Amino acid sequence: MPDPRTAPQLGVFLTPDAERLPAVRELARAADVAGVDLIGIQDHPYQRRFVDSWALMATILAETERITVFPDVANLPLRQPAVLAKTAATLDLLSGGRFELGLGAGGFWDAIEAMGGPRRTPGESVDALIEAIEVIRLMWSGDRGLRRDGEHYRLAGVHGGPRPAHPIGIWLGAYGPRMLRVTGHRADGWIPSLGFADRDTLRAGHRRIDEAARDAGRDPATIRRLLNVSGVVLPAGEPSRELQGKGFSSGAFAGDPAAWADRVADLAQDGFDGIVLAFAEETVDQVRRWGEEVGPLVRERLG
User: Which molecular function term from Gene Ontology is one that the record holds (predicted)?
Assistant: First the structure.
């Protein structure tokens, strides 16, 4: 598990809303300037009001200078892994190594099937994910004549490449016992969401990942742990509160920068080395408070 004494990175989770594209791009640029470390973009191609997440990520990378961008998480059933690997490597090369790959086994199967994708059982979706990780890494190797047989994906002599600008991490959105074992065995990171899992479940997830990593001969500390959270960053001095009701996921929180710094430090004690905030209100002020006010306080507490 990562060292809880190290200050975690801060990220923002942005919605690829077609009707708010200028605002989304402005938020990304504000995050880059405010010192935020990561931008996560959800990938739900079947959402009629969303633009394509990959085209948006390319635009954000072109309009920023230092921030890392990743899909949070890529929808594997609608993204063929060999092509996904080439797209990820291309974004990494164009941005000078500022792209990482969040990857999910799939969900919302009615919507996936309606868009022409496969409907998979839980077991099939994990099997496909395991195969996809192998395909992606083979494609990143740049080797020629790549071949592999699989139930869901195969390579039949394709030439890999290009190689990414840096070793791209594959971070899995994982919750079930088998997915957590796959994370420990094969992945570079874990990115669950608070609300889909409570704190006790997340702690148990860390233990499963650590055990699987050790079984595979890996150091658990090499596996990144990022957590999606949701909430509001209030002006300094305003009282904190839990956010409940329509529009808020379980665990949503409203607090001023000092309260958020305490909350992030607490989550770091649980083993997370990155906190990605989905704002209840996506505004530039929220992004700036997160990066410019919460960030320094977190580093003061844990750095």
Answer: oxidoreductase activity, acting on paired donors, with incorporation or reduction of molecular oxygen
Place of tokens 């959270």: 229
CA 107 to chain centre: 16
Nearest to 223 by CA among 248, 201, 206, 241: 206
Strands 253-255 and 241-242 come out as antiparallel
Give 178's contacts (C-beta < 8 A, 6+ positions apart).
123, 126
Contact 68, 99 (CB under 8 A): yes
Omega within 30 of 0 (cis) for the link into 162: yes
Residue 2 domain-assigned (yes or no) = no
In a domain, residue 102? The reply is yes
Token pair of 123 as six digits: 């077991």
- At 146-196, the pLDDT tens digits run 999 999 999 999 999 999 999 999 999 999 999 999 999 999 999 999 999
Q: Find the domain containing 41 and state its range.
A: 9-302
The CATH number linked to 261 is: 3.20.20.30
Q: Supply the DSSP string of 182-235, one letter for each residue.
A: HHHHH-SEE--BBTTB-HHHHHHHHHHHHHHHHHTT--GGGSEEEEEEEEEEPP
* Domain total in the chain: 1
